[in-house]
TrEMBL record:
This is DUF6259 domain-containing protein. It comes from Paenibacillus eucommiae. It comes from the Bacteria. Residues 217-414 form the DUF6259 domain. It holds the Pfam family DUF6259.
């Protein structure tokens, strides 16, 4: 029998994994006859905005069988009323928790997977993949919000024998969720959070996600194939690929942040045919980089570079931003009411370089935001659920691409999809909006190739290329980066989106050489980054750059 009940104890067994629940606590997880828990934990945790987590304790528990393969657990406690539906299908156990409380500010409900043996490795699709062992100093206590940080809604845990326990959700509605990690030398505690849309202040109920648990004796890759199958089917990725221009399959090398220097084009052409090269080109506008968005007007001084690049056969992605607006732009008054606000504090969110010697800083909360944009970069984030904003962005892109007869474009910050205070606008979240922008562009300009920044299971759907962010190493690499970076998302996405370099991939020094190796380790295609300081690394290639060209030309694996 899949489900066995004895008083307040319930045993749930699929063909791959067995769970034991005693009233409101997860008591056991068994795989292949072996226990994976070192300590029972509360099955559920309530999360209220601005407060610490609150483990749910039941004062009463009812178990209602729904046939041989399904059961409802109904709890009452001081925190609220809870219903957990459990179903068993083949090798999978499905768990769908929901809760109601009289308190407002109900942010999320966490399904806790007990405290597991710390000697298992965690394999997580974050920064395109990490594998962390017991001694890893990172991700000790971390909440990875989906889809920005938890880039695909699946988690793997593998032991030395290659046995894998995995948990995931198949969510065609793209609702917010999170992965909560709490680990030390003695154990690993995982929480799978069902999260409400912001704002939280009026929320008194949480529910909707069905979390699936299973195990594989053939390693995590076999488990990942199941999720990859679902992604391919749910989002019709094969159909999207079929609509792309055929030339994108011939790209073997990429350059990010390419300067408008004709020498660059001649230098690249010495090593690889231009038709195989993709160029990310940010410096084409009449305004300085990251200033005066959404003003997208070609600088006439750039014309010779573009004409030369296209005549030689290079594919040039002009750089646009998908949701940022400069606060001193004339359109900011129109869109100022539709800017991202922090989901808990309601503070305005932005990219601001006015503090910390030009590094990213928090957005000023001064109503006179336009003043800050006069001297520094201040890009406020506009809700992409707003039809008028999407129309503005697609108009700006097509107004440039059509006269240029360009068949590719780079959309910056396509991975910027947090849950926000004003989460739903016109019935849509920012997750819906970014897909609509890319879908509109590919529909109105058939064959268009889209590149973007960062990658997750949302942004990857329409992107053929993306700049790859490295694990906690935005510009400077952490210690152990090469050890913990692990090829996960490339397997989940099955090459639907190709990874290109984001930052410091020029072979200029040992730190850059490391980033090149990690980029390749994660499945990235041969690519480099350029700026005025590192252009000599291309004009007079160092060994790392020569190796990149060799790999692009098939001369090195």
């Amino acid at each position: 029998m899949a489900i066995a009940i004895q008083e307040h104890t319930i045993t749930i067994a699929s063909s791959s994994v067995k769970l034991g629940i005693n009233k409101d606590r997860l008591e056991s997880i068994e795989i292949n006859g072996q226990s994976w828990l070192v300590e029972p934990t509360p099955l559920l945790t309530f999360l209220f905005a601005g407060e610490k987590e609150a483990p749910f304790e039941a004062s009463s528990c009812s178990i209602v069988p729904l046939g041989e393969h399904a059961v409802d657990l109904i709890y009452d406690g001081m925190l609220g009323h809870v219903n957990v539906r459990i179903e068993v299908y083949g090798e999978d156990i499905w768990i769908t928790p929901c809760a109601i409380t009289t308190r407002t500010g109900f942010k999320a409900l966490s399904l806790n997977l007990g405290r597991m043996d710390a000697n298992r490795d965690l394999i997580i699709p974050t920064y395109q993949g990490v594998r962390i062992d017991r001694d890893c100093p990172y991700l000790r206590k971390e909440r990875l919000a989906w889809p920005y940080a938890w880039e695909a809604a699946i988690l793997f845990m593998e032991n030395a024998a290659g046995e894998c326990f995995y948990a995931w959700t198949e969510d065609p509605e793209d609702r917010y969720k999170a992965l909560n990690i709490n680990r030390d030398a003695d154990g690993i505690q995982i929480g799978l959070e069902t999260e409400n849309n912001g704002p939280f202040h009026d929320k008194k109920e949480v529910g909707g996600h069905t979390w699936r648990l299973a195990a594989s004796i053939n390693g995590w890759q076999a488990a990942a194939e199941r999720y990859a199958d679902w992604l391919e089917s749910a989002w019709k990725l094969k159909e999207i690929r079929a609509q792309r221009a055929a030339w994108q399959e011939e790209i073997r090398f990429a350059v990010s942040w390419c300067p408008a220097d004709p020498q660059v084009l001649d230098a690249i052409a010495q090593y690889i045919a231009p038709k195989h090269v993709l160029i990310h080109f940010p410096g084409w506008r009449s305004d300085p980089y990251d200033r005066n968005y959404p003003n997208y007007v070609l600088d006439p001084h750039i014309r010779p570079f573009l004409d030369k690049a296209r005549a030689m056969g290079f594919h040039v992605m002009l750089h646009f931003n998908v949701f940022s607006i400069s606060t001193n732009h004339e359109l900011f008054r129109l869109f100022s009411e539709y800017q991202y606000r922090d989901v808990e504090t309601a503070a305005l969110m932005a990219w601001y370089t006015g503090l910390n010697n030009g590094n990213f800083a928090s957005c000023p909360q001064n109503p006179l935001l336009e003043r800050y944009a006069e001297t520094d970069v201040l890009l406020s984030y506009t809700h992409m659920g707003l039809t008028r904003w999407r129309n503005e962005i697609t108009k700006q892109v097509l107004t440039v691409l059509n006269p240029e007869q360009s068949d590719c474009v780079f959309l910056d910050q396509t991975n910027g999809l947090p849950n926000i205070q004003n989460a739903v606008l016109e019935g849509r979240t920012c997750i819906d909006g970014v897909q609509m922008i890319m879908g509109d562009l590919t529909r109105m300009k058939p064959g268009l190739i889209i590149g973007g920044e960062g990658l997750n299971e949302v942004s990857m759907r329409y992107q053929a290329f993306t700049q790859l962010h490295l694990f906690q190493s935005h510009r400077v690499s952490i210690e152990g980066l090469e050890q913990y970076a692990y090829r996960v998302c490339d397997l989940l996405y099955r090459g639907h989106t190709k990874f290109i370099a984001y930052c410091n991939n020029d072979g200029h020094d040992e730190a850059s050489e490391l980033r090149i190796r990690v980029h390749e380790q994660l499945g990235g295609m041969p690519s480099m980054t350029l700026n005025d300081r590192t252009i000599d690394d291309l004009l007079k290639p160092n060994q790392s750059v020569r190796d990149l060209f060799d790999r692009a030309n098939g001369l090195r694996n």
